[in-house]
Design brief:
Number of helices: 12
Distance between the termini: 77 Å
Strand content: 25-35%
Shape: globular
Structural class: alpha/beta
Radius of gyration: 25 Å
Number of strands: 23
Length: 480
């Protein structure tokens, strides 16, 4: 490199102004009660001082110009100004301290308010200056990035029309109950599998997930020919084949839309996804993948086992060959084995013919109820009934449930149960509630050992607890 050019580059670097990621912009919401990391770029070796609400911290930019500083925990409130000073000063105005949640997943999380079935009533009254959304622009990357495109928006009718409906109802419900600011970082992309939202290190570190990576490598190998065929034969509305940089690329969305967020303190995450994996027959592998992703995010944020809550897929008839919708629902239920997790069951709120049910008030408010129990420690029944164990009583099976509330009931004539004997052939079963249990049996099956509920086909079922929260679908076998 010519000496004059090298000196010019060094001089330019030495005069670099301090810069902040997009998350630190006007109207930001930062997490209450947690150490607040502020970071950015400056000239190498430059000291950067951060001030807010009478608190101060500083850091020194490293050889790459990266710096960070931690402000002590602050109580909910504001607005404040965040000042960042080095050779120049950056001021972030109207900063609130409150509860911050990441909302992620695929199209049902991305589904906006203006398409939602309660939009006509909900949007005009969406005036909550202390609920704010940061919408992360869609971006895939082969490597983890350090910033995203986006900005914070106050909740007004005009802005809310484009907010995630599930996330909006979630935040609105909790904001009304707690009376503190709420910030939602919305990072969701339609038609995406969970492996796209998981880091490359986590995926390659689990041999059980290697088939997902192999399948993607096969797609990449086939891409040139598939793309040439698409360009030659494409028709209106036809999608190009997946290839480099596609939203299905393993770790691609994690790198572009999750990794840049992981230094920002949060309360927890909400998730609505699984349709893509179910459609490609990955239901049997989903528990392993999903639990790996949750652990991966928790490790990246380095905040311990923060609350991770999700919506279980509702009923839907999948006609694609090899689809595994009920297996994926089961995987979601089984993933509750992870600590500090919760699931909103919406078996009663799906649409058999539409993968995008338009009622997002139910999943949003049920997620909020789960958060009240899991994240905020309220002593409430926050989940629908979840099967705990099965005992055999002659030709009957007795099913025991967690989250039974003050009792179980059927919302109409009992439907949705089937039992099988040792041969695994299922028959529709009669069912009755007995306190906090359900007793099932089927004519002609004297020794039942397996039971299903809301499983396959139309996924129908109408068992609920006294709080009218529906039971989760399941398939299980007696152990005695």
């Amino acid at each position: 490199m010519p000496r004059v050019l090298m000196l010019s580059l060094i001089a330019s670097a030495s005069m670099a102004e301090v810069r902040l990621p997009a998350l630190f912009s006007d109207r930001a919401v930062m997490q209450a009660g947690a150490p607040l990391r502020v970071w950015g770029r400056a000239s190498p070796g430059e000291r950067v001082t951060v001030r807010m609400a009478g608190k101060e911290a500083s850091g020194v930019a490293d050889a790459l110009g990266e710096w960070s500083a931690f402000l002590p925990p602050l109580p909910a409130g504001g607005p404040h100004e965040l000042g960042v000073a080095a050779s120049n000063t950056v001021t972030v105005r109207d900063v609130l301290i409150g509860e911050v949640w990441v909302a992620s997943g695929q199209s049902n999380m991305a589904f906006n308010m203006k398409r939602e079935s309660h939009a006509a009533a909900g949007i005009p009254v969406a005036r909550f200056p202390r609920i704010r959304f940061f919408r992360v622009a869609q971006k895939t990357s082969p490597v983890p990035l350090d910033d995203v495109l986006g900005s914070w928006e106050e909740t007004t009718p005009e802005a809310a029309a484009n907010f995630s409906a599930v996330a909006y109802y979630f935040a609105r419900d909790l904001h009304k109950r707690q009376g503190v600011p709420f910030g939602v970082i919305h990072s969701a992309v339609g038609g995406t599998p969970a492996e796209s939202w998981t880091s490359g290190a986590a995926l390659t570190g689990d041999p059980a997930l290697l088939p997902l990576l192999s399948n993607w490598q096969k797609r990449l190998a086939e891409y040139p020919e598939a793309q040439a065929r698409f360009e030659k034969e494409k028709k209106a509305g036809q999608q190009p084949p997946p290839g480099p940089g596609h939203r299905w690329e393993p770790a691609g969305l994690y790198n572009g839309m999750i990794a840049p967020l992981t230094r920002y303190a949060i309360r927890g995450a909400i998730w609505y996804q699984g349709e893509n994996n179910a459609g490609r027959g990955h239901g049997g592998l989903y528990r392993r993948l999903f639990e790996t992703m949750i652990r991966d995010w928790r490790s990246a944020w380095a905040q311990g086992d923060f609350p991770f809550l999700w919506v279980q897929l509702p009923k839907f008839i999948q006609r694609a060959p090899g689809a595994s919708w009920p297996e994926l629902q089961q995987a979601q239920r089984d993933s509750l084995a992870l600590r500090n997790t919760g699931m909103a069951v919406i078996l009663d709120a799906g649409n058999l013919e539409d993968v995008h049910p338009t009622d997002k008030l139910i999943p949003g408010t049920r997620l909020a109820r789960v958060a009240r129990g899991v994240a905020y420690g309220e002593n409430i029944v926050y989940s629908g009934p979840l099967l705990r164990q099965i005992t055999r009583e002659g030709s009957d099976l007795r099913l025991w449930f967690d989250h039974a509330g003050s009792g179980l009931r059927f919302q109409g004539a009992p439907i949705g149960f089937a039992v099988a004997g040792a041969n695994g052939s299922y028959k529709a079963a009669a069912a009755r509630v007995d306190g906090a249990t359900v007793v099932v049996s089927a004519e002609g099956i004297a020794g039942p050992v397996q039971v299903r509920y809301g499983w396959g086909g139309n996924g129908e079922g109408n068992l609920a607890n006294s709080e009218d929260l529906p039971a989760s679908p399941f398939q299980a076998a007696s152990r005695d």
